[in-house]
Amino acid sequence: MLNSYASKLQIDAQNDIIPHKRDLYYITEHEGGSDSIKLPDRVAVFNEDHYISTMALKSYENLRTYRDFNDMIVKGITDYGMDLNNITISEKTFENGGKFMKQIDFNDIVIRWNNDDFILRLWLWTGYNLKWAEQFIFGPIVVICTNGLYHGAWKIKGMSKKNWSTKAQLSSIDITNAIEAFNKLPEVLEPMARTTVSADNVKHLFENTIAQIKDEIYPRVSDYRMRELSTHWDMYKNRYGSNLWAVYQTATHWASHPEGRGLKANKIRTRSEQVSGMLESNDWNTLLAA
Questions:
Q1: Contact 116/127 with Cβ under 8 angstroms?
Q2: Does the first or last residue of the chain, that is N or C, have fewer Cβ atoms within 10 Å of its Cβ?
Q3: What residues pair up with 141 in beta bridges, in sequence order?
Q4: Quick one: residue 115, left, alpha or beta (phi over 0 = left, psi -120 to 50 = alpha)?
Q5: Which of 266, 273, 237, 234 is nearest to 252 (CA)?
Q6: Dihedral sign, CA of 171, 176, 182, 185?
Q7: Can you give the pLDDT at residue 46?
Q8: What is the secondary structure of 139-188 as a DSSP string?
Q9: Do the Cβ atoms of 42 and 22 come closer than 8 Å?
Q10: CA–CA separation, 61 and 3 (whole Å)
């Protein structure tokens, strides 16, 4: 039985969705009329009477329920013995229950650096509609602006939606590595704060990375993204100065607080990957090494 603190991590009843399948049929016409023939390897998946997706029968059989996915995370956290006395939890489903997202903030795991406080957050994503693969990521959150400091090193597990038979597991090693990386955060951020940049440096970096629309026929820079980033840059440049830490905060603000139409959770997932890619780019590393 879970203790009172761990019980807070249980999935909300409204999100404890059990998908069920319905058979699919096609119609064949013939001289005597028509026949309805069942598709042998495709099913429609529903949340009660709400359609979620059509998929291969094997994919449906390999789906892990949101409750089981959440229970796996809870087991990893409780087996490790993480302090659950002061946590903040947010969870939600989207698209008729086809997607599930959860955030857990560990408010007592905190670092203060450069007059900012950082706490540790765990993001969880999965989906019955196969648009979101099972994924969980630890990462720091800047308390004052709730920006997530996305970086490729923080990603613990991202399972391919083409291989649902292999299930993600949260281990003690994953948590140990996440906390050790979190405690070393100032060592990562200090070089950024010491590296000054010009407006042209920032413009060139964004144009070559997160503002770039990748298209094999017509690759281009998004004016809309550049306008967003310019507004955020002005704010963080005034707060921190013209340095790479301000650039990083600009990018993470853009990823953590997406504007405009579309599902916010989709944008956060996509943009967090783009920010991680920016930090691995030649443009970023060239500026950091200057």
A1: no
A2: N
A3: 119, 148
A4: left
A5: 273
A6: negative
A7: 97
A8: EEEETTTTEE---GGGEEEE--TT-TTSPP---HHHHHHHHHHHHTHHHH
A9: no
A10: 32
Q: Identify the band that residue 1 occupies on the pLDDT scale cut at 50, 70 and 90.
A: very low
Give residue limits of the domains in the chain.
Answer: 6-15+62-185, 20-60, 195-289
Please give the Cα distance from 230 to 206 (Å, whole number): 10
Residue 62: count of CB within 10 angstroms of its CB: 14
CB 124 within 8 A of CB 133: no
- C-alpha span between 75 and 131 (Å, rounded): 25
Give the pTM: 0.85
Report how far residue 248's alpha carbon sits from residue 233's, in angstroms, rounded to the nearest whole number. 9
Q: How far apart are CA 170 and CA 176, in angstroms?
A: 11
| Residue 107 confidence (pLDDT) above 50 | yes
- The CA-to-CA distance between both ends of the chain, in Å, stands at 55
Q: Is 123 helix (H, G, I), strand (E, B) or coil?
A: strand
Per-residue pLDDT of 8-33, as tens digits, reads: 899 999 999 999 999 999 999 988 88
**Portion of the chain with pLDDT greater than 90, in percent:** 65
For 184, the token pair is: 């070393």
